[in-house]
């Protein structure tokens, strides 16, 4: 029996993500939570013939805590998306929402795996960590910042740059660092299969790195005020969630993914700090998934000079974003 919760389930990401989770037979209970329309979306999804039993909860309901009770995994695409001209940092208003959700999870599902999609991920993941620490429920091996859309984009954009757009799913490119602009560090030198036609052409390489780092802006611009990536994020989100579900509940060990995590999460974090030459508390790294969540933090490995320069820029920009999340003070409750 596996209970999954989607917070922000009525939103642009939340609805398709909930649909895709409803289709995963590992999930037997799916609770949809939002401040609007969660009950309607749940009624709609509940007609699909798959094992998950769907329930919907509005945050204003007196029994809204039930959404979280007994949850094994909570996926969080709640909060405001970008409009043209905004940076992800401008979405720090979402910190308050994240803190509230973290408190509900700590109270009702202290052992749940928590996957954070809400932006700015570089800051909201530290907000969750701090709230869990205050509640005494923090297990860093169970907290994941979802940066998987960057990995998906890297494959798609690399295949396109090479002139083989139909082969997107054949390219695997690790993306480490953070989830915003210069903090997004695609490791093109580690691409599988190798992409010498890009690596040996500075102009093409710079263009590809830039497209991966600023892929989110493409969608924000194209949607022209109607939000940011939702459908590609739902697909990336479910892909990542399913990897965690497979590792924790499906007995499939050993999957390696990248996620923005607490470097204190498990032996290996200190090694990353040496590799990146900084004691940043959070970074997106290669992790091996297993029954406990983050089973191992794996080295970044060999990177070339161009990537070393990008790493320096990423580390510089990440520090203040992490600090902002760590030092976030929720507004006192209204009396
Ligand atoms: N990590 C990533 O790669 C990535 C990718 C795309 C978008 N995002 C982020 O995901 C978030 C959601 O994006 P979206 O396009 O789905 O936005 P959206 O506005 O369409 O949906 C957000 C949903 O959150 C709900 N919500 C607001 N406050 C809530 C609360 N306290 N509890 C529960 N639900 C609440 C809203 O009612 C809404 O239904 C944004 O912050 C966006 O920037 C992250
Ligand atoms: O770009 C955004 O604001 C949303 C998301 O972080 C993305 O990368 O698409």
UniProtKB/TrEMBL annotation:
* Subunit (UniProt): Homodimer.
Catalytic residues? 179
Species this chain originates from: Kwoniella heveanensis BCC8398
Q: What is this protein called?
A: malate dehydrogenase
**Record-annotated membrane-spanning stretches:** none
Q: Which Gene3D superfamilies match?
A: Lactate dehydrogenase/glycoside hydrolase, family 4, C-terminal, NAD(P)-binding Rossmann-like Domain
Show the GO MF annotations.
L-malate dehydrogenase (NAD+) activity
**One of the GO BP terms on file:** tricarboxylic acid cycle
Keywords in alphabetical order: NAD, Oxidoreductase, Tricarboxylic acid cycle
Residues binding substrate, per UniProt: 82, 88, 119, 153
Q: Where would I find the Lactate/malate dehydrogenase C-terminal domain in this sequence?
A: 148-328
Taxonomy, top ranks, is:
Eukaryota, Fungi, Dikarya, Basidiomycota, Agaricomycotina
Name one matching Pfam family. Answer: Ldh_1_N
Q: Where does NAD(+) bind?
A: 8-14, 34, 94, 117-119, 233
């Amino acid at each position: 029996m596996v209970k999954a919760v989607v917070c922000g389930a009525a939103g642009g990401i939340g609805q398709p993500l909930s649909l895709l989770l409803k289709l995963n037979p590992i999930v037997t209970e799916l609770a949809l939570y939002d401040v609007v329309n969660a009950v309607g979306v749940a009624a709609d999804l509940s007609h699909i013939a798959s094992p998950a039993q769907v329930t919907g909860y509005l945050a204003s309901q007196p029994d809204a805590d039930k959404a979280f009770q007994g949850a094994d995994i909570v996926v969080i695409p709640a909060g405001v998306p970008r409009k043209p001209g905004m940076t992800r940092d401008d979405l720090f208003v979402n910190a308050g929402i994240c803190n509230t959700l973290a408190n509900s999870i700590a109270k009702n599902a202290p052992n749940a795996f928590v996957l954070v999609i809400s932006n700015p991920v570089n800051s909201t993941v530290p907000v969750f960590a701090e709230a869990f620490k205050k509640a005494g429920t923090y297990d860093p091996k169970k907290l994941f910042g979802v940066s998987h859309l960057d990995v998906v984009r890297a494959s798609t954009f690399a295949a396109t740059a090479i002139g083989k757009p139909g082969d997107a799913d054949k390219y695997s490119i690790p993306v480490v660092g953070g989830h915003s602009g210069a903090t997004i560090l695609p490791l093109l030198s580690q691409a599988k299969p190798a992409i010498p036609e890009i690596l040996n052409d500075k102009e093409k390489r710079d263009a590809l790195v830039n497209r991966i780092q600023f892929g989110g802006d493409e969608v924000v611009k194209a949607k022209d005020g109607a939000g940011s990536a939702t459908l590609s994020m739902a697909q990336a989100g479910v892909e990542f969630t399913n990897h965690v579900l497979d590792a924790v509940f499906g007995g499939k060990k050993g999957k390696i993914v990248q996620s923005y995590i607490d470097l204190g999460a498990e032996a290996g974090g200190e090694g990353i700090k040496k590799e990146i030459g900084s004691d940043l508390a959070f970074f997106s790294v290669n992790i091996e998934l297993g029954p406990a969540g983050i089973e191992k933090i794996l080295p970044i490995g060999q990177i070339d000079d161009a990537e070393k320069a990008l790493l320096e820029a990423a580390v510089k920009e990440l520090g203040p974003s992490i600090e902002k999340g760590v030092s976030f003070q929720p507004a006192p409750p209204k009396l």
